[in-house]
Design a protein that fits this description.
Low-confidence stretches: 112-117
Helix content: 10-25%
CATH superfamily of the largest domain: endopeptidase domain like (from Nostoc punctiforme)
Distance between the termini: 49 Å
Shape: globular
Number of strands: 22
Strand order of the largest sheet: 17-18-19-20-21-22
Number of domains: 3
Order of helices and strands: EEEEEEEHEEEEEEHEEHHEEEEEEE
CATH architecture of the largest domain: Alpha-Beta Complex
Structural class: mainly beta
Mean pLDDT: 92
CATH topology of the largest domain: endopeptidase fold (from Nostoc punctiforme)
Largest sheet: 6 strands, antiparallel, barrel
């Protein structure tokens, strides 16, 4: 298989694994419309190590789930402001059959003059331009679309999502690019000096044991945070960390706050 072959996800959601095996842990997922480059293939040609274009994340994809595209189409995707699905779930008519797609899926629909429709589809759901940056109220409504979604390591959908997948997807739909993992996201944006200076939409980073960052969530207010822990939920927040009223205890220690959303001109 040619190195640096290009591909795109043309299924609802596909696992990307740590190693080339179905028994290996899922580290992230591809949603419909996510595109990537192939870095190498396994010796038996059953697995491909890929690099996802949006966040540079690498992992192993089953060759059965690989959909090859040309370099020309790959470049076209990179230069087009495609639509992103804002419905919890929707369906499209694609290649003569219906496919269910999920919140955050990318649709090859664009008003770019350079756009050339390589694949015909019909979509009747709600969407927005991927590159259009929205304010906190939009971020808030998007986050609430994931409320009560079960926690799933490596997940990025309303049917299973982890803490950094949650923040990445919410911001992606809002027009902002975040890295995939918590320890990567903490390098983005600007540091907020403390909880009193925090604004809705800021990212809070936490530890569960010790001082190693292992968790992230989105501030709803200075005293509230929405995050994926067991499920996507809203908990209380103060300078000490996340307090769960359900468990009647602090579950995460606050380490730092970062601001990615743009406020003002």
């Amino acid at each position: 298989m040619e190195i640096l072959e290009k591909g795109i996800c043309r299924l609802t959601v596909v696992p990307v694994r740590n190693k080339p095996s179905n028994r290996s842990e899922m580290v992230t997922q591809l949603l419909f419309g996510d595109h990537y480059e192939v870095l190498e293939s396994s010796e038996d040609q059953q697995w491909l190590r890929i690099k996802i274009y949006f966040d540079g994340y690498e992992g192993w994809l089953s060759s059965l789930n690989h959909f090859q595209i040309s370099q020309e189409y790959f470049d076209q995707i990179n230069n087009s402001d495609y639509k992103i699905c804002t419905d919890h779930s929707a369906s499209i008519y694609f290649q003569n059959h219906y496919i269910h797609i999920l919140l955050g899926s990318i649709l090859p629909i664009s008003t770019n003059e350079l756009f050339r429709m390589e694949e015909q589809l019909a979509f009747n759901g709600e969407s927005k331009s991927q590159g259009q940056r929205r304010d906190f109220e939009f971020i808030k409504e998007t986050a609430l679309n994931y409320l009560h979604s079960p926690y799933q390591w490596g997940g990025k959908t309303p049917y299973g999502i982890d803490c950094s997948g949650f923040t990445q997807q919410v911001y992606k739909i809002g027009g902002y690019k975040l890295f995939r993992d918590t320890n990567q996201q903490v390098s983005q944006g600007n540091e907020v000096s403390g909880i009193k200076e925090a604004k809705p939409g800021d990212l809070g980073f936490f530890s569960k044991n010790g001082d190693k960052i292992s968790h992230v969530g989105i501030l709803f207010a200075q005293d509230q945070i929405i995050h994926a822990s067991g499920k996507v939920k809203i908990d209380q927040l103060d300078s000490q960390g996340i307090f769960s009223e359900e468990l009647n205890k602090y579950t995460h220690k606050l380490l730092t706050l970062r601001r990615v959303l743009k406020y003002g001109p």
